[in-house]
Amino acid sequence: MNMCDLIVKKKRGGALEKEEIDWMIRAFTDGEIPDYQMSAMMMAVCFVGMTDEETKNLTLAMVNSGDMLDLSEVRGIKVDKHSTGGVGDKTSLVLTPLVASLGVPVAKMSGRGLGHTGGTIDKLESFTGFSTSLTTEQFIHNVNTIHIAIAGQTADLAPADKKLYALRDVTGTVDQMSLIASSIMSKKLASGADAIVLDVKTGDGAFMKDADDARELAKKMVNIGKLCGRDVTAVISDMDQPLGYAVGNVLEVREAIDTLRGHGPEDLRELALCLGSYMTVKSGKANDVEEARSLLEDSLESGKAFHVFKEFIQAQGGDPEEAEHPERLLSARFQEEVFSPEEGYVSDIHTEEIGRICLLLGGGRETKESEINLAVGIVLHKKKGDAIKKGEALAVIHADDRALLEQAKERLIRAYTFVRQKPRREPLIKEII
Length: 433
Ligand code: URA
What we know:
Layout: H1 3-11, H2 18-29, H3 35-48, H4 52-63, E1 79-83, H5 91-100, E2 106-110, H6 120-124, H7 136-146, E3 148-152, H8 159-169, H9 177-190, E4 195-202, H10 211-227, E5 231-238, E6 246-247, H11 249-260, H12 266-282, H13 289-302, H14 304-315, H15 320-324, E7 334-339, E8 344-349, H16 351-361, E9 377-380, E10 387-388, E11 393-399, H17 402-415, E12 416-419, E13 429-432
Parallel strand pairs: 1-4, 2-3, 4-5
Antiparallel strand pairs: 5-13, 6-9, 7-11, 8-10, 8-12, 9-11
Helix pairs in contact: 1-3, 2-4, 2-8, 4-9, 4-10, 5-11, 5-12, 5-14, 9-10, 12-13, 16-17
Bound molecules: uracil.
Residues 165, 174, 179-180, 183-184 line the site of uracil (URA).
């Protein structure tokens, strides 16, 4: 086969055959196809698109480019969860011990934060000693005993996607639906789950700013799952303001602990219950989402979910006392309030900017290699629809550097928009696909 012929075929609107996609992905992963040819192919795909069949074949070719996690020794139906990423999105910290507390086996591969969005692994590393580098034996043992293990993604899981994503990132070819859907789903399928619940976020703080784009991406991922014999549900959720109030690693961990103890913000609790209900039904632990929700609510209220969280932290080398006393987790040197310049109601929060302010403070990664400061971030006091008086606190900034703190304060005020009339509240859950 010849890569140039395939590029021309795609450029002219053709659909690539399975054998062509398999060859292209194998040869690219092995270094036989140079980056410049693959970049040309990715750009052609951006203009011409891919059929459902091509998208499925691309996904499977990337799955087959590396190892599949063998979870056959895990007892029960394994259900994974994936979020397309947002600001203040600490849902997995609440959701995973919550469903595990009902006996749903959670065998999860998670990632680190990049850009304005955070990652579960960074957040969990707020606990002293916590490790996500588990051997396969430890991973499976933990899932079989306490129903939960979370590991960092290994390099041999869908390596073609890793190489291709790095290339797309620097050639302006990330934002193509089939490429995004196949990239996400290849990692999920290689992680060995029987069923998957996707949290596809839409709004200013999300990857998909536009609701129609989010719906299209969700449909593509659900369809890939169907074509590959996996049971996939997508929940489209709002990211037009941060989830909960806390943005920044340790701050988000504290909020997740509050939620597991029954005092967290309503939107975080609601999203965890919604995603958790679908996961519970897929795993066969409840007959329908209503029954699942009631079991999950009981688990939150009785403290069972928080107990599993502490067991999980301990099983992966962390100190469960820090979960019991989250004030012992790292704290930033400065904590200063930002005051409202206006009176009225909050009509908008520039959510991506909130994520970028956290990045400015050192709480996120500009590049994969950046070091992060787990303690810094922002705790909002006001969200959309809230009434505010002039001079009342909008948020508290947690910073380790005084100059960055001052910049963050100025940018935070500009991220808020105020109106005189109380605005309508948008629903958190927009659609289930
Ligand atoms: N996240 C991924 O994993 N892949 C993409 O292509 C985009 C976002």
